[in-house]
Amino acid sequence: MSTYELMYIVSPEVEQEDLEAVVDRISQIITDGGGQVLHLESWGRKRLAYQIRRFREGHYILAYIELDPGAVSQLRARFALTEEMVRYLLLRTDEVPARVAEAARQEEPAPAEEPEAELESEPAEEAAPQPQEEPAAPELADEQEARDADSAEVGD
Fold this sequence. Notes:
By secondary structure, the chain is α+β, with helices and mostly antiparallel strands. The chain contains six helices and four strands; from the N terminus they run βαββαβαααα.
């Protein structure tokens, strides 16, 4: 089985209450095709970059799935018949992103927040050396002025 990233846009005509049923129906299409949904992520209702089938907005859903490569064509045919799905993109990936793999292993979101805290502390450490480098620039300018003054004296 190969791992795929599936991004699809659900019609904005689907109400928020019915969106979960549509996502479940699409997940069922995947499992009926012999696949497995590893991770689902709703990005909410967003404006489209351009109009698709008279729609200017849509509900964005990101899913990571495992599927037999031979079943991809059947899956695409089923997606084409799903009226609520405005557009989809199915990409084969070599590996699942770390954040998705962690979420699949651990159901609690608290451990996922800890790496963000570590990332916040790293830029603060990187920002500290920058002010130390800035005072070095005026010293270079003073050296350049001294060289210019010396060359002016030699020319006189």
